[in-house]
Design brief:
Number of helices of chain A: 15
Helix content of chain A: 40-55%
Structural class of chain A: mainly alpha
Mean pLDDT of chain B: 85
Bound molecules: zinc ion
Largest sheet of chain B: 4 strands, antiparallel
Shape of chain B: extended
CATH superfamily of the largest domain in chain B: Protein prenylyltransferase
Order of helices and strands of chain B: HHHHHHHHHHHEEEEEE
Family (chain A): Belongs to the protein prenyltransferase subunit beta family.
Function (chain A): Catalyzes the transfer of a geranylgeranyl moiety from geranylgeranyl diphosphate to both cysteines of proteins with the C-terminal sequence -XXCC, -XCXC and -CCXX.
Number of domains of chain B: 3
Oligomer: heterodimer
InterPro entries (chain A): PGGT1B-like, Prenyltrans, Ptb1, Terpenoid_cyclase/PrenylTrfase
Structural class of chain B: alpha+beta
Order of helices and strands of chain A: HHHHHHHHHHHHEEHEEHH
CATH class of chain A: Mainly Alpha
CATH topology of the largest domain in chain B: Serine Threonine Protein Phosphatase 5, Tetratricopeptide repeat
Catalytic activity (chain A): geranylgeranyl diphosphate + L-cysteinyl-[protein] = S-geranylgeranyl-L-cysteinyl-[protein] + diphosphate
Enzyme class (chain A): transferase
Distance between the termini of chain A: 43 Å
Chain lengths: 332, 323
């Protein structure tokens, strides 16, 4: 058995900044090519983590903006990389990156909104692209895009809320579709979609809060569903849902902080799903986002609803739809 | 998120090993990128033929999450291959698509794109064999009793089977018993408890009161067994709570006020409330005041909850009763 990984009790900001900067230089790795369809999302994970660490300048701003714009199609939707097909799942990170870089005027918002609206179904749900997959994830994405662009009136919010409520379960959680089992990532999307829609009264906060706080395991980490392993990305899905329904104090923040920090790669930077595993930008982002929500010293605050830096949401003039930061505001 | 970022151990490496790996990868990268660019060229030239379909197969075997390649695959089938075929030949091609799925599922059982493709194939088949799908999903859940995609697909298959039947009692009973089996195999199979909560209402629907009571008693026995075996497990507790119904806490109206010369009326409660129906408001003549209610998210943390009602009566000075 290998030796125990080295431990630290602090966030290695410099290492993580370097790690994120290095991502675009790994063309010798097959993995770089196999994950091409995730590149635009990767930019969002990277930029957001950097901004939270107060290092947004570590990536070249103009280049990033140009790249994002090049992923857009005539239809208004964005592909996962230049030349990849448009999908709503790639359209949100495009908007998020541009908002964070204060460059929303680089794209035609009308086109984006039209694309999103075209994906709404009769019953209020959204499909991911023309091929018809339906999922509560896409409701959140649609609402989030339209809210960031201040165009919520262009989609049928009321019907969308009605459909999301159909996905609610007896445990207070939400699934991917009506009848689907509760899952932390789906709960994140539904709770925060309802927050954006001003419909949080559909959430039974105490019941859901209980389910969510039971996700914390003895080692401090959170899992996504009962009887599953802990995983850094759930630090975000679970914690932000708790923040939005104002039940974040139902879990142990010190132990969760410890767990996230223990999943850092102390040699090459980055954060992995669990201590000792290979790091990736997805878990690096969600680990740092979780720490930001936990008010980790030196990080900027994050908005649990939009999963974006709070100062970006504030400067867009959007209301804080959660009660989290008001309670523990410590300044950026 | 793709599953390949989960559970991959970091292995110690040195310069020499890294160099050797790089050389090996360089070959693979070239092969892969050649495949991708050839495939893109063919699709752009609208060569929607079997040879292009095979290119997509080669790529998807290396990378089943590449959604654009799946889209190409469907375009090739729809635009190039199906138009030249009769129904039977089309069915055969789609059957091969289902077999291709079975090959890939061994590489990555959690790819959304793959499952979407299977659903799409069945949706364009003239005679989809849902019983075959039912058997397949049973086998998958035998291998992994918590597989999210597996359960999700099971619901999809069952919904299609239900649609074909006039009497859905048989399939509902079958599904209910299926959850019993899964729960008895493991009391902490949360997916099975969840599914049970969705099937139970349709089982009870046409029952007499006595029959319902009998089912209820059996449910309580099952829960009791589960709680004795796995007392720390949340599954059975939540199911129990749902079955007996949560006792709502007593919520009171703290006050209500209307804003003069506007259409707004505010009602404040001492705890969180969800509305089961409209708030009943009467004016001084005991007439019902109609309007729609909106939840007012508090601007700061507060134990009070207020609802706003926008009514259609322009001004009334006194309201009599809010209930
Ligand atoms: Zn994860």
């Amino acid at each position: 058995m290998a030796t125990e990984p080295p431990k630290t009790d602090k966030l290695e900001v410099d290492l993580h900044v370097k790690y994120i900067q290095s991502l675009n230089t790994k063309k010798d790795d097959l993995e770089y090519w196999l994950t091409e369809h995730l590149r635009l999302q990767g930019i969002y994970w990277g930029i957001t983590a950097l901004d939270l660490m107060k290092h947004v300048d570590a990536l070249p701003r103009e280049e990033v903006i140009k790249y994002v714009c090049d992923c857009q199609h005539e239809s208004g939707g964005f592909g996962g990389h230049i030349g990849h097909d448009p999908h709503i799942q790639n359209t949100l990170p495009a908007i998020q990156v541009l908002a964070t870089l204060n460059a929303l005027d680089a794209i035609d918002a009308d086109k984006v909104v039209k694309y999103v609206a075209s994906l709404q179904n009769e019953d209020g749900s959204f499909q991911g692209d023309q091929w018809g997959e339906v999922d509560t994830r896409f409701c959140y994405i649609a609402l989030s895009i339209c809210s960031l662009l201040k165009r919520l009136d262009d989609i049928n919010v009321k019907k969308c809320v009605e459909w999301i409520v159909k996905c609610r379960n007896y445990d207070g959680g939400f699934g991917n579709q009506p009848g689907g089992e509760s899952h932390s990532a789906q709960i994140f999307t539904c709770v925060n979609a309802l927050a954006i829609a001003g419909a949080l009264h559909h959430v039974d906060r105490d019941l859901l809060g209980w389910w969510l706080c039971e996700r914390q395991l003895k080692n401090g980490g959170l899992n996504g569903r009962p009887e599953k392993l802990e995983d850094v990305c759930y630090s975000w899905w679970v914690l932000s849902s708790l923040a939005t329904i104002d039940r974040m104090d139902w879990i142990n923040p010190e132990k969760l902080t410890e767990f996230i920090l223990s999943a850092q790669d102390l040699e090459d930077g980055g954060i992995s799903d669990r201590p000792g595993d290979m790091v990736d930008v997805f878990h690096t982002h969600f680990g740092i986002a979780g720490l930001a929500l936990l008010k980790y010293d030196g990080l900027r605050s994050i908005d649990p609803v939009y999963c974006m830096p709070q100062h970006v949401i504030d400067s867009l003039g959007l209301p804080r739809l959660h009660q989290h930061n008001d309670k523990m505001e410590s300044g950026v | 998120m793709s599953s390949n970022v989960h559970g991959v151990k970091k292995v110690k490496t040195n310069e020499e090993l890294a160099q050797a790996r790089k050389q090996k990868e360089a070959v693979k990268i070239k092969e892969y990128n050649d495949l991708v660019s050839r495939c893109k060229e063919e699709v752009e030239a609208k060569h929607f033929e079997f040879s292009t379909l095979r290119l997509t197969s080669d790529i998807l075997q290396l990378n089943p999450d590449y959604y654009t390649i799946w889209n190409y695959r469907r375009e090739i089938l729809l635009q190039g291959i199906f138009p030249t075929m009769d129904e039977e030949a089309k069915q055969q091609v789609l059957q091969q698509e289902l077999e291709f799925f079975m090959q890939l599922i061994r590489i990555n059982p959690k790819s959304y794109s793959m499952w979407n493709h299977r659903r799409w194939c069945l949706s364009v088949m003239s005679k989809p064999d849902w019983q075959q799908e039912f058997k397949l999903v049973g086998k998958m859940l035998d291998l992994d009793a918590r597989n999210f995609h597996g359960w999700s697909y099971r619901r999809n298959v069952v919904a299609n089977i239900r649609e074909q039947q006039l009497d859905t009692k048989e399939i509902d009973t079958k599904e209910f018993e299926y959850t019993s089996t899964k729960i008895k195999q493991s009391f902490s199979n949360y997916s099975a408890w969840h599914y049970r909560s969705k099937v139970l209402p349709s089982i009870l629907k046409d029952m007499t009161d006595e029959e319902r009571t009998a089912v209820g008693k059996k449910e309580l026995d099952l829960i009791k067994n589960a709680l004795y075996t796995e007392p720390d497990d949340q599954s059975a507790w939540l199911y129990y709570w749902w079955l007996v119904g949560r006792v709502p806490s007593h919520v009171q109206i703290v006050g209500a006020y209307s804003v003069s010369k506007t259409q707004f009326l505010f009602v404040v409660f001492d705890d969180e409330v969800q509305l089961a129906g409209d708030i009943a408001v009467q004016d001084e003549q005991n007439n019902k005041v109609n309007g729609s209610c909106y939840f007012q998210p508090p601007t700061m943390p507060s134990p009070l909850h207020s609802w706003m009602m926008k009514h259609w009566q322009f001004s009334f000075s006194n309201w009599i009763q809010v209930a």
